[in-house]
Amino acid sequence: MAHPHDDIFHRTFANKTNAAALFRLALPQELVKAIDWRTLGLSCRITDSRLKNLLLDHFYSVRLRRYDLHLLLLPEHKSRRDSNYVLQELGYVVAALQQWAENNSAWKGLPPVIAVLFHHGDKPWRTPTSLRHCFDRAGLRIVRQEDPGLAAIIESVSVSMPSRVVDMAPLDEGWLRKVRLPAVVKLVLLCMRVMRYQDKAEVAATLERWSDLLVAVHKAPKRQRKLGGVESYLVQLDKLDDDQLLDIVQRTTGSGDELMSIAERWRKEGKAEGKAEGKAEGVAEGVAEGEARGRIATLLRQLQRRFGELPKSKVQRVKAATIAELEIWTDRVLDARTLQAVFAAD
Asked: Which of 134, 168, 202 marks a domain boundary?
């Protein structure tokens, strides 16, 4: 099952206009000018089941203006530094080339592949972004220092596979204000890089501060309507109460229809269940218990969406948890690769 980060990234950059904006931001300007962006299109569909949930179902192809050469552009994102990134990306590149070869058997040769990494963590990306960087860590750096000629020979006959990195960690809201990007892309980046690390009060203030961006996204062409999945993302991250989010959007755009997505409905159901039980108690203790049950219902839904049917032991553990434990696990479920990682001891 996809993380909320995966879902909003894939949803946003499966759109050609949004993907082009990301690629223009990442690629060298000389290459940006040499590309005929009118030819940008979704290329082959990824059929490898091991990769489908890890990157876009499609990768992009584009042609140069003056030459009959296709490029394959492969977007990926990371919410934190990952020492395994280069090996993962190598697998994606090989899969993309294999898929291209199968679907374009009449072509001779293979198109160049450019991997584009979008990093939206809070700490700058410091891990390798090419095989050469990995080779350096394995000792090639020492060879280069002591025998540059030998190092150059090794580099000339080995694979490098560099990635272009858009590192959002050092960038702030001022940069986001100035950069030329589609409104929905700005809103998504604002969520993934800024609001993801804020508490509820800070998120509410950020949305108010960027109300003009909400309006711009709301007024986008009909096929790009809704808030670009931002509403689902914020609800799943538990960054705003439903009523708060609805109030901000209604006051800003004049409509709250965008908020009634599946993600919001199951979240509302969970809260409603807890509030109803709390109200039935008729006392403050009952209300608190009802709130806890709402959190439990929400977390269980998230866990089932991510990992499928849950063992009874895990269900019981969630039901017996404290509010503090529920908050920790709700945060972890966004990035945890396994069910065990959600419940791991600190």
From this structure: 168
